[in-house]
Amino acid sequence: MESITITHTQPDDLGFYGNFGGAFVPELLRPNIEELSSAYAKCNQDSSFQDSFVQLLKDYVGRPTSLYFSQKLSSKYGCSVFLKREDLNHTGAHKINNALGQILLAKRMGKTHIVAETGAGQHGVATATACALMDMKCIVFMGEKDIQRQAPNVQRMQFLGAEVVPATSGSKTLKDATNEAIRYWINHPQAYYLIGSVVGPHPYPMIVADFQSIISAEIKLQLKEKTGYELPTKIVACVGGGSNAAGAFYHFYSKDQVELIAVEASGKGIDSGASAATSALGSPGVLHGSMTLLMQDHHGQVIEPHSISAGLDYPGIGPLHAHSISTGRTKAVYVSDNEALMAAKELTLLEGIIPALESAHALAALDKMTLTNEDVVVVNLSGRGDKDIETYTQLI
Ligand SMILES: *Cc1c(COP(=O)(O)O)cnc(C)c1O
User: Fold this and answer.
1) Nearest Cα residue to 9 out of 318, 333, 293
2) Does the beta carbon of 197 lie inside 6 Å of ligand 1?
C-alpha cells in the first residue's frame, strides 16, 4: 500500500490522486504540458531555483507570515486558536506565493509572456504583480461580467501593466475566461499559462500545492516554537479551488492525528440552488482539464455556483481535495454567506483584523466543530478583507 503522503500530496505519474486528477487536454496542448512537466522536474531538483524562490518569499512577499495566537477566539471556543496570517503577504493573500513560483519557472523555461484567467481578479492581480517584477508581458482573460463587478482589481492589473481581455462568450464569467485562456495558449504555445489554484491538468495541481506548501512548513516551525509541539490537533482552511488549503494541509497529510478541515461555501444554503458546496453537491467529471468533483446537471453542464465570496465561487474543487475528502482524510464543513459575514465581523471587532470573505468562511467553521481545551487549532487566514469592504459596510 502506498503511504498517505504520496497519495495525498503527490499524484502518480499520470497526475492522479486516487481516482481524481490527470491531464484531460486537447492533443494540441500535449507538447505544452510535457514541456512544463519536464521543466518543473528539473527546477525541483535545482537548489538555485529553490533558493531564488525562498529569497523572493522572504524579501518581496514578507515571509514568514506570523502565526498569531488569538487569546479572544481561544477563550470563546475553549481551546487554543492560532491564525496563520497569510493576509500579511504582499498583495494581501496567499496567491502571490504561487504566482512568484510559477513566474520563476516560466523564466527558467525561457518564456517572456504569461497568460492567465481570473474570476474576481485576485489571481490576476497576483500574476500581474509577479509579471511587473519579472518584466514579463501579461495577458489576463476575465469574464465581461466579472470585469464590471470587480472594477478595482481590473484597474490594479492595468496599472501593473497587464492587458485585461474580456471573455464575452457563455455566462461571461470565470469558466468562459478559462476557455479563452486555454484557447489562447493553444494558439501561442510560447506563452506560459499560469494557473492560480490546485486545479487544471497535471502537473498544475502538484506544482501549485508544492509552491503553497511553505504555509504548513512555517506552521510546523512556528507551532513548535510557541507550544513545544509541531502538530496542531486541527487545521482549518477555506476551499475555492483549494490552493491555500493544500498549502496549509501539505505537511500534515501524513500525520493522521492532525484533523484536516476543508471549508466550502454553502452560499444561501446547500440545497438552495445558490451554493458552491462542491464536495456535497458535486459528482465526478472533467473540469478545466482534470477529473474531479464538480457541480453539474444531468447533461454534464456546469451549474453556476454562488458564494458571497468571489474566491470561493467556483463549481469544482482541486483533484487532491476531491480525493482526500472522498477517502475521509479531509473533512468538509459548509459555511453560508451569512455565517461568513458574522465571522468576519467578529474577528474584526475582537482582534482588529479584517479578514477576506473567503477566510471568514474558515473562521465560521470553528462554530461547527466539537472543541475541547486539549485542542490546538490553526485557522489559515488566507487573505485580508480590504477588497470586501463594500460588502462589510452593510454590517456597520
Ligand atoms: C482566491 C482566494 C481563495 C480561494 O482560492 P484557493 O485556491 O481555494 O485558496 C481564498 N482566500 C483568498 C483570500 C483568496 O484570494
Assistant:
1) 318
2) yes
- Cβ-in-10-Å burial (0-12, 13-18, 19+) of 254 comes to middle
- Mutational pocket test of ligand 1: of 87, 89, 118, 197, the residue with most ligand atoms within 8 Å of the beta carbon: 197
Q: Ligand 1: does its nearest atom lie under 6 Å from the Cβ of 209?
A: no
Lowest mean pLDDT among 5-19, 100-114, 162-176, 288-302: 5-19
Residue 168 has a CB neighbour count (10 Å cut-off) of 11
First vs last Cα of the chain: how many Å apart? 54
DSSP E strands, the chain: 16-17, 20-21, 67-69, 80-85, 113-118, 137-143, 163-167, 192-193, 234-238, 259-267, 283-287, 290-294, 330-336, 376-381
**What CA–CA distance (Å, rounded) separates 131 from 370?**
44
pLDDT digits (tens, 9 = 90+) for 286-316: 999 999 999 999 999 999 899 999 899 999 9
Q: Are 209 and 320 in contact (CB under 8 A)?
A: yes
pTM of the model: 0.97
The 10s digit of each residue's pLDDT in 113-172 is: 999 999 989 999 999 999 999 999 999 999 999 999 889 999 999 999 999 999 999 888
Pocket test for ligand 1, best of 88, 95, 198 (most atoms within 8 A of CB): 95
Distances (CA, A) of 233 to 107, 140, 184, 259: 39, 40, 45, 6
CB distance 278 to ligand 1 below 6 Å: no
Catalytic residues: 95, 117, 382
Q: How far is the CA of 67 from the centre of ligand 1 (A)?
A: 18
- Contact by Cβ (8 Å): 258, 232: yes
Give me the domains of the chain, ranges plus CATH numbers: 17-57+95-208 (3.40.50.1100), 62-92+212-395 (3.40.50.1100)
CA angle 78, 81, 82 (to 5 degrees): 170
pLDDT score of 7: 47
Cis status, amide bond into 189, omega within 30 of 0: no
